[in-house]
Every structure is written in C-alpha cells, then in structure tokens.
Amino acid sequence: MLSLPCSLDFTRNKSPSYMLGNHSSATEFYLLGFSGSRELRHILFATFFFFYLVTLMGNTVIIVIVCLDKHLQSPMYFFLGHLSALELLVTTIIVPMMLWGLLLPGMQTISLAACVTQLFLYLALGTTEFTLLGAMAVDRYVAVCNPLRYNVIMNSRTCNFVVIVSWLFGFLFEIWPVYATFQLSYCKSNVVDNFFCDRGQLLKLSCDNTLFMEFILFLMAIFVLFGSLIPTIVSYTYIISTILKIPSASGRRKAFSTCASHFTCVVIGYGSCLFLYVKPKQTQATDYNRVVSLMVYVVTPFLNPFIFTLQNDKVIEALRDRVKQCCHLFRN
Predict the structure, then answer these.
(1) What is the DSSP string of 216-239?
(2) How confident is the model at residue 275 (pLDDT cuts 50, 70, 90)?
C-alpha cells in the first residue's frame, strides 16, 4: 500500500474557490492535485516519475517480447500483451498531467475538452481491462480443466473475437455516462479536488440533483465489475477443484503457476476498483478517492509487469534470450 507523507494536506480547507456565479457551465476546470511544501511536491514528483518510467518500460517490454518470441505465441500471452497495452494507456492518460501539476506553483488548468477526453478514455480503458481480465480467467479455466481441447476452443479466431469485443464494449459502454456527466450544470465551482478529472468530484460541483444519476452509475459499475468478476470466481472455483485432485505436489504447483500471475492481478485490480467505483454515492470521501486513485492509476500499472514476469518462467526465459541476443549484437 502506498503511504503518503503525513504532512501532505488533502483537506484543502485553505484552497481558493472559483465560483461560477450565474454561469450554467464551465469552459475549464482547475485541478487542486496535491498540496504541501515545494520540497514535498518535488519528492512526490520524483517518486511518481520513477513509477511512471518503470511502468512504461515494464509494459513495453512485455508487449515486445509477446510479439517477437515464438514461445509466447499462445492465447494467455496474447491477452497479456493487450492487458499491458491497456495499463500503458491508462497510466499515460493520468500520470503525465499529474506530474505537470506537481511542478506548477498553483492549481492546474484543464480545458473542458481535455477533461471530457481524459474522463472518457480512463473509464473506457478501465472497462476494457476488466472485460479482458474476465476473459483471461475463462482462458485459464480451459487450460487447466480441459487441456486436451484447449487449442481447439481457444483458437486464434476466438482470441481475436474476445479482444475486439472487449475493446468495443469498453468504449461503447462509457459513452452515455461521460455524455450525461457533462450535460450537468456546473454553477457551484470549477475546482476539481483531485489530480485528474474525477467523475465523483465533477458531480459534486454540479448544482443539479445528481442522486438518480449517481444511482445509475453505481448500477453500471456493479454490472462491469461483477459482470467480469463472476466468471472469474466461477473459473477459479473449478480451477482450484481440479488442481486439488492432482496427486503430486509438483503437479499441483505447476498447474497453479499458470494462473498465479492472473490471479494476483485480479485481486489487486478488482480490490482497488471496488473501493473506488462501487459505492452508491459517487461524491463522497475526497481524501479516500485520491489515495485509492493513486493505487489504481499509479501503483497497479507499476506492479503488473513484475507480477507477470517474476511469477512466469516462460516470460523470464524469453527476457533472458532477448538480453543475450542484445549483448551478442553489441559485442559484434
């Protein structure tokens, strides 16, 4: 769990409030980001910049070796490549703007168009990622519980179909929520108390009654998260049952090792997003939202490359082969 310095002030009691008066909507927003001394903000900048660089390098390496290494040409690694691409895109949508805000002396300005784009992209990519995680769980179920038919069931056509549907569903599903969010009247303020265009904070700034909309968003979040979590739970129930029936300890260990990376990713990803999005009132707990948002958009993408490499012998072997090839080229 990422621990933030005790002197970091999340309450913003002394922050300036930009009131919109009689205006019915905002043409730009101000992101409060993180408060604290200049030195503290620089420390946070260095920390998050390091996380971002490692995230970029780690996920890019996974994508490259999955595309180039012939030993990784299987459905599991095909899905892993797309998952790494999603992590790369999600963190790139959020973190660079957050880093720029840490360098600015005051609040960060973001245009209405940029806010709409950021909100839509991170919600759409997140929805796509959860859909893909559910598909990966089913893939692991077929691999462990029905290995003889694995290549028949999870053929290239099936894998391409699953990935295309996941991406399309993610982007189409989030059109209405984003459209509805920016149809609200923002007459209270245009100061967003977060480091990105957080939907909960945007709803909080509206002078409209958002209770019904928050309830609909709550139901949609449940549909996405639990809609992909249910097949994951069912798949792992069968997987664990099958693994326990394997007589040898080495056989059980080998069988579960094929699922360990995905299972770890599921626990971290679903755990943090359940706390962030599945709540009846979207506008509650600003400090809580900020910390959980850091887990979702900074820490989780940073950890995923390690999860999928350190627990996967084939990926480690592929990395070693590529490093040896690079060293051989430099020597020549």
Answers:
(1) HHHHHHHHHHHHHHHHHHHHHHHH
(2) low
Structure tokens at 151: 């290549």
pLDDT bin (cut points 50, 70, 90) of residue 125 is very high
Q: Which residues contact 82 (CB under 8 A, 6 or more apart)?
A: 132, 163, 166
Instruction: Answer yes or no: are the C-beta atoms of 289 and 198 closer than 8 Å.
Output: yes
d(CA 326, CA 186): 55
Q: Please give the order of strands across the beta sheet that includes 108-111.
A: 108-111, 28-31, 191-192
Name the pTM for this structure.
Answer: 0.83
CB 276 within 8 A of CB 263: no
DSSP assignment string, 260-301: HHHHHHHHHHHHHHHHHH-SS-TT--HHHHHHHHHIIIIIHH
Pairing of strands 28-31, 191-192: parallel
- In the block, which residue shows the tokens 């400090």? 287
The CA distance from 112 to 87, in Å, is 25
Q: Which two tokens stand for residue 172?
A: 């189409």
Taking Cα atoms as reference points, which of 158, 70, 135, 155 lies closest to residue 265?
135
Mean pLDDT (the chain) is: 81
Question: CA end-to-end span of the chain, whole Å?
Answer: 45
Per the structure block, which two tokens stand in for 225?
A: 């998260």
Q: Which residues of 159-181 are buried (b: 16+ CB within 10 A; e: fewer)?
A: beebbeebbebbbebbeebbeeb
Cα 263 to chain centroid distance, Å, stands at 15
User: Helices (DSSP H) in the chain: which residue ranges?
Assistant: 38-68, 75-103, 112-145, 150-153, 156-173, 175-181, 199-205, 211-244, 249-277, 286-294, 300-310, 313-331
CA distance 163 to 131: 9
Query: How many residues make up the chain in this entry?
Result: 332
Q: Give me the mean pLDDT over the 139-146 stretch.
A: 89
On the question of pLDDT at 66 being above 50, the answer is yes
